[in-house]
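We give this protein:

***
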Amino acid sequence: MTWRDAVSAGLERGLHHPLRVLPSGAGSALGAWLGRRVVPGLHPVATARARAALARLRPDLDTGAALAEAWANIAASFAEMPRILRFWEEGRVAVAGEAHLLEAHRQGGPVICAGLHTANPEVLGLTLARLGTRPVGIAVRQPTAFRERVITDIRTRGGGRMILADRDAMRPALSVLRAGAGETLLFWMDEHVGGTVRGPSLGRGALPRNGNMALAARLARLSGAAVVPGYVTRLPGARARFLTTFLPPVAWPEREDRLGDAAAIDAVVDPVVRALLPQWLHLIAVRGEE
């Protein structure tokens, strides 16, 4: 761990408990301020990557303003964790397209939510739980023990449960889908593994055969699950207010093909990530050569 990483981790841990007593909007605004003023200097390599990705993928945006928005969103998301379980009751989460999700459940088959790490992605799991479609997330371990405790607490107290994203994760994931208990398998399509962002494609060539999109498609083919993309948008001009959006289920090619099926998911989620690029948490990690 570098000194910059140590400072970032110290800020995250040191502010967590004080942020519990601040109003949700004020805590989010404090995080956004730190994201604009302090955090970029602690992560120069990530800042350079994000700047390059913004210039390549969204040349229509003012790169400097979009970069500031990206860091503000990331820091605000961390600052929101101490109070995120109150967001629904505080009226901070609106929902669009929930009929796509609920209709998929009403039809009686299993459902996979193809999630994206946009805005504050923990709001997506919270929304699934509050709509009565309990999320079962395929989750990677967090980089620090403190963050692991915080995220685990949010997800379990928020009404969900988790499957560890390891080499054996597909077996319990398939069991969730075949059980038909009204749960939603929450599977993140924009995976970040070993320092590499493997999805969506973002003009970088073919998707990996063992990537999350290909695995989600395989699970859907095996179980008959509907794959409903879902993502969160941070609303402009508001402190800690969000819109969770669900899209129609992904339409599959006639013939099963791992890369073709993955491409069908990518065709839906890639435009969403591009549109919300300053709010995409993996922006600071994506590299053009990946």
